[in-house]
Amino acid sequence: MRKSLTPQEARLWLYLRDLRQQGYHFRRQTPFRGYFLDFVCFSRRLVVEVDGGGHNEEAQALHDRVRDAVLRRHGFHTLRVSNADINTNPEGVMESILRLLAP
After folding, report:
1. Would the pLDDT of 82 be above 90?
2. Phi-psi bin for 34: left (phi > 0), alpha (psi -120 to 50), beta?
3. What structural domains does the chain harbor?
4. Closest among 56, 51, 41 to 103, alpha carbons compared
5. Residue-wise pLDDT tens digits, 24-60
């Protein structure tokens, strides 16, 4: 677990915190089943992972697939968003998150 957020994670965290007004509570850097989840809303079983360029490499991509499968077995949906999307289209990222949070 990192002590500080990346710039993209910090930016997304500001948006996610505002969702509390709509009844959605996200936690950050949360341990779960041997993994640290970037952001998680337990009530909606949604995990949001912020991925940098290293996630395109085969070894990391395999690790991500295994991790996503573990989370899926526990009833979670994982949304992976890229640093680039957060930098250039944070509103679009939030629209995707809100769609997944809707009942």
Report:
1. yes
2. left
3. 7-101 (3.40.960.10)
4. 41
5. 999 999 999 999 999 999 999 999 999 876 556 667 7
